[in-house]
Structures are given as C-alpha cells and as structure tokens.
Design goal:
Elements: E1 7-10, E2 14-17, E3 30-33, E4 43-51, E5 56-65, E6 68-75, E7 80-87, E8 90-97, E9 107-114, E10 117-122, E11 125-131, E12 139-145, E13 150-153
Antiparallel strand pairs: 1-2, 2-13, 3-12, 4-9, 4-13, 5-6, 5-12, 6-7, 7-8, 9-10, 10-11
C-alpha cells in the first residue's frame, strides 16, 4: 500500500527511496534491482545506508526472481537485524538479532556470500551469519519497506 515506490538519485551522489510502500508482512515492499549479475556467485557487496524513518531497509542478494533470494533487513520500529531466505514466497529466518539502527546515522554494510556461507557485517563487525545452499548465484537489490526515508550510498 501507499505506493508507488519513489527511488531517486540525489545531488551528492546517493540514492533515496521516499515512498511509504509496504505490504501486510512488511517483508515485500519495494526494491531496486541491479539488472546485471544474475550469474554472480561468490561475492562481497558493500554499501552504506541510513534511515530518517524507523521502518525496514536492507538488501536482497543472490536474487533469482521475486520469490527466490536471500536478504538482510534492518528495522528500528521492530528492533531487529535479520538474515532471511525467501523461497516460493515463504520467509525463513537464518539468523537474527534485536539490534535497531539509529536514525540519521550512516552505516557501512557488507554482505558476504561464499558458497553456502552467508554473513552480514555492519561497521566492520560481523552481526549475522548462516549456512544455506538454496541459492548459489544471483544479483542484488536495495530494499525498503514502509520506510519513507531510506538512503543508500557507495554501492
């Protein structure tokens, strides 16, 4: 609801999403897909993010299609960092913390996907990890759910 999504390049070179788009689960909302890279296998994806809102944002990776990918989601309103798998529309939690982000603060995020090993690093500290072999390759997408103040940089 409250769509459509509104991704914009902002003066200064960063990307923002300003629509409050979401669905009832909060885990399917808007994402900005990198169209190349469906063959990417083992990789480390680095970027910076911040939010002026308190809802969810993050990244999808090893993205196959709308129902098959891993994702990192971070929320302040429902304090959590989660490493998740979407498979045939069903979400499975692979790892989770109850750590919220601080609004208006930039964070350096790195996603590692090497074979079945998946890890999320925030500001140089490993915060989530799991092993899962469901998806060996795929592209990535930036993610925002009910968050009208999602910002991404240095992707």
């Amino acid at each position: 609801t409250q769509g459509p999504s509104n991704w914009q390049w902002v003066s200064g070179g960063y990307l923002r999403q300003t629509s409050n788009i979401y669905n009832s689960t909060g885990l399917r909302a808007t994402h900005l897909l990198w169209p190349g890279g469906f063959e990417l296998q083992d990789y480390r994806l680095g970027f910076r993010l911040q939010s002026t809102d308190d809802d969810s944002l993050g990244v999808l990776f090893r993205y196959q299609d709308v129902d098959h990918y891993y994702f990192f989601v971070w929320s302040r309103q429902n304090p959590r960092q989660q490493l998740l798998r979407m498979e045939d529309g069903v979400v499975t939690v692979l790892d989770s913390t109850t750590t919220p982000y601080t609004q208006n603060t930039w964070y350096a995020v790195d996603i590692e996907a090497e074979g079945p090993r998946l890890a999320v690093w925030v500001d140089g500290m490993k915060v989530l990890e799991a092993e899962d072999s469901s998806y060996a390759a795929g592209t990535f997408a930036l993610f925002s759910a009910a968050n009208a103040g999602s910002y991404f940089d240095d992707v």
